[in-house]
Specification:
Layout lengths: L2 H12 L5 H8 L3 H13 L19 E9 L4 H9 L4 E6 L6 E7 L2 H12 L4 E9 L6
Antiparallel strand pairs: 1-3, 1-4, 2-3
Helix pairs in contact: 2-3
Length: 140
């Protein structure tokens, strides 16, 4: 990945719906170059897909939380794979420090969040968890 790829990805992160012509103009290259770069980044697995982001208040009835997970396996991949099976787990991040994994959780209710947390605690290799419920999102 070179500087042009990084700049292209930065533009797509900000707005994945930008037309190729706009991307090309912003980057100072041809439309063909941008399309070829996007195609290559997708083929290489650098870009996994294009999605949309909703505002923080898209559904005020949802319960959002961050769950920190400490695992005790030699193969964290098995814990991560088990976490992927939990629908409330929207994003899974490996971390450093006391906690091994951070899980971005979204549930319809506190009861649903509690159920998902029970599933996480039952995963083979999970030693402990700590969950922080997110109350208000302040935009930057």
């Amino acid at each position: 990945m070179d500087d042009l790829d990084r700049r292209l990805i930065a533009l797509l992160r900000d707005n994945a719906r930008l037309p190729v012509a706009t991307l090309a103009q912003d980057l100072g290259v041809s439309r063909g170059t941008v399309q070829n770069r996007i195609d290559r980044l997708v083929a290489d697995g650098r870009i996994l897909g294009f999605t949309l982001r909703l505002g923080g208040d898209e559904d005020p009835g949802l319960v959002r939380a961050i769950t920190m997970v400490q695992e005790q396996t030699k193969n964290a991949a098995s814990v991560i794979e088990a976490l992927r099976q939990i629908p409330e787990a929207r994003a899974i991040h490996t971390t450093n420090g006391r906690w091994d994994i951070a899980v971005d959780m979204v549930a319809d209710s506190l009861a649903d969040l509690d159920e998902a947390l029970t599933l996480i605690r039952r995963i083979d290799g999970v030693v402990s968890t700590e969950t922080i419920i997110l109350l208000t999102t302040h935009k930057i």
